[in-house]
Amino acid sequence: MVDLLVAWQSQTRIAAAGLLPMDHSEGVLAAADVAKRDQSIREFRWTVLPHESRKQRFLWPAVRAHVSDGAALVRELGNRKRTLELGLIKARWTDERSRFFDEQLRRAVAHTHAYLECEADALPSFSTQIPDAVQQRVAQRLAAPHGVRVVQPHPDLPLWVESRAVLPLAVMDWLRDRLSTAPG
Predict the structure, then answer these.
(1) Where would you tag: which of 41, 42, 65, 149 has the fewest CB atoms within 10 A of its CB?
(2) Which of 120, 130, 149, 124 has the alpha carbon at shortest distance from 57?
(3) Which has the higher per-residue pLDDT, 13 or 36?
């Protein structure tokens, strides 16, 4: 389980590297640079959000049950995850050619690294305090093939609504990505 989490962290760091701000020569980004950045944002979302929703669903209950002060750790991880998602939403509704958009992306990358550091600090306690059988079961569930998945954060929805409305939300996200000119 810990090996899978470390691999996911590596994928997240690689995806976050694509979000670094671009140079604004003459104050405006070229259309090709905007398209490249849009693709990087989509790849970041497609990498991070499915992993995080799976961790929230399968890993966090095991952490709450078996890790000392696991509830506080899960609360901290949840707060950092929400901050990251809100940063992505703010970036989505900002003009992608502005410097403010770059600032939003810079903040999202910083929030991503803060979240990953918090999780990395907790990995040793995961491996020592969660029983091996539980770790194996969680790892199997985390690594199971993805079905239809939500790729856009929906922080305004309660978790129980989001978990029951996965298919409509996933279709809505897919349609928005295909028909929208907005980044992310």
Answers:
(1) 65
(2) 149
(3) 13
pTM of the predicted model over 0.90? no
**Is there a contact between 34 and 97 (Cβ–Cβ < 8 Å)?**
yes
pLDDT at position 184, please? 44
Domain boundaries in the chain? 2-147
Residue pLDDT, tens place only, 155-166: 566 666 666 776
Sequence-distant (6+) residues with CB within 8 A of 98 are none
Contact 24, 100 (CB under 8 A): no
Residue 16 or 27, more confident: 16
At 120, which amino acid appears?
Answer: A
Nearest-angstrom CA–CA distance, 34 and 11: 23
Closest C-alpha among 122, 114, 57, 46 to residue 80? 114
Q: Are 74 and 57 in contact (CB under 8 A)?
A: no
Give the Cα separation of 31 and 76 in Å (integer). 39
Q: How far apart are CA 114 and CA 108, in angstroms?
A: 10
Instruction: Report the sign of the C-alpha dihedral through residues 25, 30, 34, 35, in that order.
Output: negative
Give the Å distances, CA to CA, from 148 to 22, 167, 172: 32, 6, 12
**DSSP per-residue string spanning 4-70:** HHHHHHHHHHHHHHTTSPPP-GGG---HHHHHHHHHHHHHHHHHHHHHHHHIIIIIHHHHHHHSTTH
